[in-house]
Design goal:
This protein has 672 residues and is an alpha+beta fold. It has 5 domains: 3-64, Orthogonal Bundle (Helix Hairpins), CATH 1.10.287.610; 86-314, 2-Layer Sandwich (D-amino Acid Aminotransferase, Chain A, domain 1); 433-506, DNA polymerase, domain 1, CATH 1.10.150; 509-590, 5' to 3' exonuclease, C-terminal subdomain (DNA polymerase, domain 1, Orthogonal Bundle), CATH 1.10.150; 602-670, Rossmann fold (3-Layer(aba) Sandwich), CATH 3.40.50. Helix content is 36%, strand content 18%. It has 24 helices and 21 strands. The strands form 5 sheets. Strands 12, 13, 14, 15, 16 and 17 form a 6-stranded antiparallel beta sheet that branches. The longest helix is centred in the N-terminal third of the chain and has 24 residues, at 3-26. It starts with a helix and ends with a helix. The structure holds 2-(butylsulfanyl)adenosine. 2-(butylsulfanyl)adenosine (IVH) binds at residues 82-84, 112-115, 119, 135, 171, 223-224, 288, 307, 310.
Length: 672
């Protein structure tokens, strides 16, 4: 091969390799295999070694790391790198819009994700990457070009028709999967784990040897362009152009970027991502709202630190580190013991968190919890926060391990653990005070006996006053007894309770069955049992074999029902309830015959509906012979989606190819 041919082949290989890079790292649509790619890269490496005069600093060979940088050069930014003004609530976003509109009238906004990574400014001259500089103090930053070249989703050479001079700004970050992979590798090597993707990205970019940076597998998203000859005056359109030049830009189809001209549109975007961000492949810490028109941006101008044409809406932190002060143990109505972490108060997503559920003894053992540990607390989508990890390296000397008790913290009875269950139980159901109160509280609840005026607190007062010992005692209560309780009790409240108790005698049998609190017999199972068995009397004598014949009833539930009726005390209470006139059998007038339009189909219901309440739509499914389930699986026949169904559910349904129908389609399915 002569000099000319070498030069030609080097250019050809460089072009091909960059093209494959773009297909793989930006478009996620490779057209060749790894081996073939490596073959081309090796050939290029060989030629560059032989003809170093043709080896460009932007050669694809630099992706795996060029020369070591001793000290990063500090360089001046051509356009200062400003920061965004932050807001933490929707009111501030609305104020931003109002201020913009007051100055320039109605306008279009671009909304995009606020990537939680490290800001970078990339300079291109004639389409060649010439510099990559960190934000630094906004005026000057570190020249980390050799490290930047190793980030595969950053184009080294632009494609198509691009301006001669261009600065592309964006964020360098880790995809969560890559970060997890990195940590898994470190764990295997016995190295200390990285704390979070953002700090690790920042640390990686400051490595002196680009080869080390290349191994980390960083990624990049572009969020703005700077230059004298940008293709359009719309930020949104310019981002589309940047995608054509080979940059990784936000994908409109995945709602990574969107335009709107209303506050409502902005709020909807924020609302969507506040939930959907949990399923995203990278961390984001907010949403950025920008005036789309570059001329209007100029008109609105800048404050000393930030543009007046943009605002960031920051999501509230949902996790944080705090100290574990103690572990308490709660006894539920079924006797289940739940360990509860007592925490040094911490502000998460706008509320102060002092306690977190620890679920059971296994969970404590798995976390290897010690009192005094610094623990990772997470709010997630749930109401009760949980502990997701322990900072083992920060454990105070002599911190005692958390040990699960052997006896009930309330009544001292030895705890039991049933086979196949994770929970410990206090078996002293008739004399352990929180179990008594808990059972009565459950009994009076809205979906059970629905007794007005009796809440958790009142039940506690009645139990402590010795007026009631079990649910049947409610029916012997007299108004005078309530009035004598003194504080807080008047004619009105006493009447309400007495009337509520009387009215509960008309509650249908299926709810009574749920109310008496047989372990594992929830709302749905109670309904099935009531319809199939018909009465309490019959239920009490069914055998294990007969019970498991009933839909929804497995061996655990069947055993639990048999155990319940085996206890003399339970039979006595049920007997008394019957004497007081509580429904003990299905009323043939109120149970509608079950139709079979939805027979064999399983539904998941999500969101809110126009013509049904949530309970109503479930009722409609069951009364037509269908099944309702809480989570989407491959067995789900349909997801019935109302307004604001969660994006996580939709993604799950899509990935399992479960059809998602709306309420009108559902109504058509059950029409007579
Ligand atoms: S625009 C003039 N858009 O957030 C402001 N910034 O405080 C230009 N960031 O350091 C920034 N995602 O690195 C913009 N979609 C996005 C962004 C974003 C993340 C970072 C940026 C900057 C900080 C702003």
């Amino acid at each position: 091969m002569d000099r000319n041919q070498a030069q030609h082949r080097i250019a050809e290989l460089s072009g091909q390799l960059e093209d494959h890079n773009h297909k793989y790292y930006v478009l996620a649509a490779p057209t060749i295999g790894d081996q073939e790619f490596d073959g081309l890269l090796k050939e290029l490496e060989r030629l560059e070694l032989q003809w170093p005069e043709f080896a460009s600093p932007n050669s694809p060979t630099q992706r795996v790391g060029g020369d070591i940088t001793k000290n990063f050069l500090v360089v001046q930014h051509k356009y200062p790198m400003l920061s965004l003004s932050n807001s933490y609530n929707k009111e501030e976003v609305a104020e931003f819009v109002a201020r913009v509109e007051k100055e320039i009238g109605q306008t279009i906004y671009t909304m995009e994700l606020k990537y939680d990574g490290v800001a970078i400014s990339l300079s291109y001259e004639n389409g060649q990457l010439v510099r990559g500089v960190t934000r630094g103090d906004g005026e000057k930053g570190d020249d980390i070009t050799s490290n930047v070249r190793t980030v595969r989703s950053i184009p080294l050479q632009l494609r198509g028709s691009f301006p001669d001079q261009l600065e592309a700004r964006g964020e360098i970050l880790f995809m969560r999967a890559q970060f997890d992979r990195l940590n898994a590798e470190r764990e295997q090597n016995g190295e200390e784990l990285y704390a979070n993707p953002r700090n690790t990205a920042a640390g990686s970019l400051k490595q002196q040897d680009p080869k080390d940076v290349a191994k980390r597998g960083l990624d990049n998203f572009i969020y703005t362009l700077q230059g004298e000859q940008l293709p359009t005056r719309s930020h949104y359109e310019n981002m589309r152009a940047a995608a054509e030049w080979g940059f990784k830009t936000p994908d409109p189809q995945r709602r990574f970027i969107e335009r709107t001209d209303t506050v409502e549109g902005i709020m909807a975007f924020i609302g969507y991502w506040d939930i959907a961000r949990r399923d995203l492949e990278m961390d984001i810490d907010g949403i950025v709202i920008k005036v789309d028109d570059l001329r209007i941006q100029e008109e609105l101008g800048y404050t000393a630190k930030s543009p007046r044409w943009a605002i960031a809406y920051k999501f509230q932190a949902e996790q944080g580190l705090t100290r574990l002060n103690d572990v308490g143990y709660q006894v539920g109505r079924t006797g289940a013991i739940t360990p509860v972490a007592e925490l040094e108060p911490i502000l998460l997503a706008g509320t102060t968190v002092k306690r977190a559920s620890l679920h059971n003894a296994d969970q404590i053992a798995k976390l290897d919890l010690h009192i005094g540990d610094l623990v990772q607390v997470e709010k997630g989508g749930e109401i009760i926060p949980k502990i997701t990890g322990v900072q083992l390296d920060q454990r105070p000397a002599g911190a005692p391990p958390v040990t699960f008790p052997h006896t009930c913290p309330e009544c001292g009875t030895e705890l039991v653990r049933y086979e196949g269950e994770a929970q410990h139980y206090c078996p002293n159901e008739h004399a352990c005070s929180p179990q008594i109160t808990g059972r009565i509280e459950h009994f009076v609840g809205r979906k059970m006996m629905n007794i007005d005026g009796l809440g958790g607190e009142t039940v506690g007062v009645l139990v402590r006053a010795g007026l009631i010992h079990n649910v049947a005692d409610l029916y012997t209560l007299e108004k005078d007894q309530l009035l004598q309780l003194g504080k807080g009790w008047g004619e009105k409240s006493a009447n309400q309770v007495i009337e509520g108790i009387a009215a509960s005698k008309r509650i249908p049998f299926e709810q009574v069955l749920f109310a008496i609190g047989i372990r594992h017999v929830g709302e749905t199972v109670a309904k099935k049992l009531a319809r199939n068995v018909g009465s309490m009397e019959r239920l009490a004598v069914l055998s294990q074999e007969e019970l498991v014949q009933i839909e929804e009833v497995g061996s655990v539930i069947a055993k639990s029902i048999i155990d319940f009726f085996a206890v003399e005390g339970n039979r006595a209470i049920v007997g008394k309830l019957k004497e007081h006139g509580v429904s003990m059998e299905v009323d043939p007038d109120t149970v509608k015959p079950i139709g079979d339009k939805l027979k064999g189909l399983s539904f998941v219901v999500s969101g809110v509906f126009l013509n049904f309440s949530r309970d109503g739509i479930k009722e409609a499914i069951e009364s037509n012979g269908g099944k309702v389930s809480g989570s989407i699986s491959s067995k789900t026949s349909y997801v019935v989606a109302g307004a604001d169904m969660g994006p996580a559910k939709r993604t799950k349904a899509d990935s399992l190819k479960v059809p998602v129908i709306d309420e009108n389609e559902f109504t058509r399915m059950i029409q007579p």
